[in-house]
Amino acid sequence: MRQGHWASLVGSISVVAAGIVVVGATPALAVPPHPGRTTIVVSPDGDDHNKGTPGKPLRTLPAAQAMARASARAGSAVTVELRDGTYRLDKPLRFTAEDSGTSAKPVTWTAAKGAHPVISGGRAVTGWTSYDAGKNIFVASVPKGQDSRQLYKNDAAAPRAAIKIARSDVTITESGMEIKNPALNYLATLPDQSRIEVESQGSFTDRYAPVQNISGTTITMQQPAWQNNNWGYDTLARPFAGGQLLLENSYAFLQEGQWYLDPAAGKLYYRAAAGEDPNGASFVLPYLESLVQIAGGYAKPVHDLTFSGIQFSHSTWLSPGSSIGYADQQNGAFIPKAYPQPADYLSSCQSGCPLFEGARNGWNQMPAAVQVAAATRVKFTDDTFSHLGQVGLGIGLDANANGAGIGLGVTETTVHHNLFTDLGGAGVVAGGVQPDAHHPSDPAMTLRDITIDNNFVTDVAKDYKEMSGILTTYVDHAVIAHNEVSNLAYDGIDTGWGWGANDAGGSQDYKNRGLYAYQPIYTTPTTLKNTEVTGNLIHGVKKVFHDGGSLYNLSANPGAVFSGNYIYDTKRTVGLYLDEGSRYVTMKNNVVQDCGVWVFTNSYGTINNTSDNVLQHNWYNSGGTQTPDAGVHNNQLIDNVQVSGTDWPAEAKQVIEQAGLEPALRTFPGVSR
Asked: Which InterPro entries does the entry mention (predicted)?
């Protein structure tokens, strides 16, 4: 085929990426693609008029994407090779079915040998000058109108300006708060009051609500965020077990190491330590809310696409600072809009109420920085997800959590040997929470065969602390194997969703709560089944929230097996947790060390159908066995062994030794053994 024809073809491709909508402006291919293997080289020092060869690399990812599409169409197995450096995006990089390869000839985006390419949604901040020398506050100029909830200093998240207050300092009202502590009366004098937020940490929720204004001792909050955060369970007004309350995001709150952004003025403030000059540090302010969006259609999914050796960094998520707030319900699910509420919701709906159940099927999910939907045979290997303001990688989340506007529908996708660290939300989330996730209206929406293995997930969920390191919801055959999950405020690995309410036959508990006035009692099972959670190492978890468990399941999960996992350092909370509606789950050959409760089944009475589970041949050295009404629910405890101290038998020692990343893959700094 003649070169001129290919140049015309590529020039007609529309690419949405890196801040440019390229229509008829993509650089023409310098050479025609040909059957066989095509390597396209990209470098921050390249030129998009080049050929994409080692001697003449391209400069931008959109130009490489256009060339890769054309080469794949010509029958080539395509490798896009990224040289060392940072590739800053102006808009998310969008991959569609046009970016697909085939099983025999995949499309691979990879780091060049020895390179560490970074795909970034942030801008470097430089030029700091002294603003308030007495307090060591510095200021730098940033683009006006750019907002962010994150700032990264020397490759680590820096905290926003915040102060802790006692819950007794304020009284919660239907419209906001009344100040009771005179030391807080100065709040009424502060500028930019609508940027101030309240954060409330409960037993399993981490909530955010923005202020509207402050007059005298009356703090009026933005709606619907305030009302949505104050009904249901573990609310801001009445957290089940107390928890920290904070005021955040005002210049007046700045303490050492904290920052405040004034987007209207285009000014970023940082309070340095004594003797510190921020010009000697590296600062990046993120502005994109997602970096990569991979999404086809249910009839034409993205397929045979691999990302290897690439770092994804610098994103934010702005919704919690809007009038929506973050009315967190559990593990990244939140109420996104106003719903009818009881007039006396502050008293009548603090442990649920029928109207609250009317909102349940409308919960949204926190989006991820890297999003995958309507796709098959997508792989992430040897990548790094770091310095991101929300979930790192989202696989088949609901449509509301995907910038492409389509959700679910992911199959045969692998997440292998990646590093997830310094994230605002969870490391990996797979599956949705809305009705199409558990009873899909189109079979192609079903998530199936998702493998998450040999990843190091550490120091994540730093802003939205109620998220686990890894979460899979409604997935047919999720494999979560040989990961190390550590340093978390909440759970290590969570599977399932729905509290049994969407399982065949429904839940008497949720019938009593009034849910079925708003949804059917399903007669068929959900898509959740055959989950494998094996050989994982979970430690340093439950640092803030006592509810939940280090290894946790929710709802019926036929064929699920949790085996060979090693759990320790959990602040004496629950090790193995089978929550409401968990059924047909086998937990065996796990080692649970130094937990307050080594196993808990939420099976009180007969209304929670947490039944037909097997807990067999696990080892533990402390903590209670809490399996209420085990006989009624057919929850079987078989040959579990309590040991003294850490005098583990040989079989348990083998589990401990083999848990976590497989030996040849323990290459990340800080990984155990």
From this structure: PbH1 (IPR006626), Pectin_lyas_fold (IPR012334), Pectin_lyase_fold/virulence (IPR011050)
Beta bridge partners of 162: 248
Q: Minimal CA–CA distance to 147: which of 250, 17, 267, 326?
A: 267
Residue 627: strand, helix, or coil = coil
DSSP secondary structure of 357-409: HTTGGG-EE--EEEEEESEEEEEEES-EEEEESSEEEEES--GGG-TTS----
What is the Cα–Cα distance from 139 to 131, expressed in whole angstroms?
6
Longest dimension (CA), the chain: 79
Q: For the whole model, what pTM was predicted?
A: 0.95
173: which 2 tokens? 């009202």
Q: For 10-151, list the strands marked E by DSSP.
A: 14-17, 20-23, 36-42, 76-82, 85-88, 93-95, 107-111, 117-120, 122-125, 129-132, 137-141
Q: pLDDT per residue over 270-313, tens digit each?
A: 999 999 999 999 999 999 999 999 999 999 999 999 999 999 99
What is the rounded CA–CA span in Å between residue 348 and residue 341?
10
Classify residue 630 by its DSSP letter: H
Q: What are phi and psi of 194, to 5 degrees?
A: -75, -5
Poorest-confidence range of 1-10, 120-129, 437-446, 602-611? 1-10
Q: At what angle do helices 61-73 and 3-11 cross, to 10 degrees?
A: 130
Three-state DSSP class for residue 3: helix
Q: Which two tokens stand for residue 607?
A: 């209304």
List the beta strands (DSSP E) in 398-499: 410-416, 419-423, 428-430, 448-453, 456-458, 470-472, 476-481, 484-486, 493-496
> Is residue 163 very low, low, confident or very high in pLDDT (cuts 50, 70, 90)?
very high
For the stretch 187-245, pLDDT in tens is 999 999 999 999 999 999 999 999 999 999 999 999 999 999 999 999 999 999 989 99
Domains and CATH numbers, the chain: 3-115 (no CATH), 125-286 (no CATH), 292-317+366-665 (2.160.20)
Where helices occur in 148-269 by DSSP H, the ranges are: 225-228
Strand partners, 583: 556, 611
Beta pairing, strands 368-373 & 375-381: unpaired
- Cβ atoms of 431 and 286 within 8 Å: the answer is no
| Nearest to 456, CA basis, from 654, 670, 308 | 670
Is the model's pLDDT at 27 over the cut of 90?
no
